[in-house]
Amino acid sequence: MKLVDFLDQSPALTNDEARFIDLDNDLSLSYQDMVNVSLALAELLTGKGVKPKDVVATYAPNSVAAYCCIFAISRVGAVWLPLNARNTLEANLKLLKKSNTAMLFVDDSILASVPELEQHFPDVKRINFNAHQVGGLDIQSLARVQNDFAVNEDDEGQSGDEQPLVSLLATGGTTGDSKLGEWAGLTWQTMATIQIEQMPKTDIPACYLVCAPMTHAAGVSSFATMLQGASILVMNGMVPDKLLSAIESHRITHLFLPPTAIYMLLAYEGVRDHDYSSLRYFWYAAAPMSAEKLKEAMAIFGPVMIQTYGQVEAPMLCTVMSVQDHVDALESGNFSRLRSCGTAPPQVKLAVLDDEGNVLPAGKEGEIAVKGDLLMRCYYKNPEATDAIRVNGWQRTGDIGVLDDENYLSIVDRKHDMIISGGFNIYPGEIEQLLWGHSAIKDCAVIGVPDDKWGEKVTAVVELKNKNEKHDEQEIISFCKDKFGSVKAPKQILFWDELPRSPVGKVLKKEIRNIFWDKARRKI
Question: pTM of the predicted model, to two decimals?
Answer without folding.
Answer: 0.83
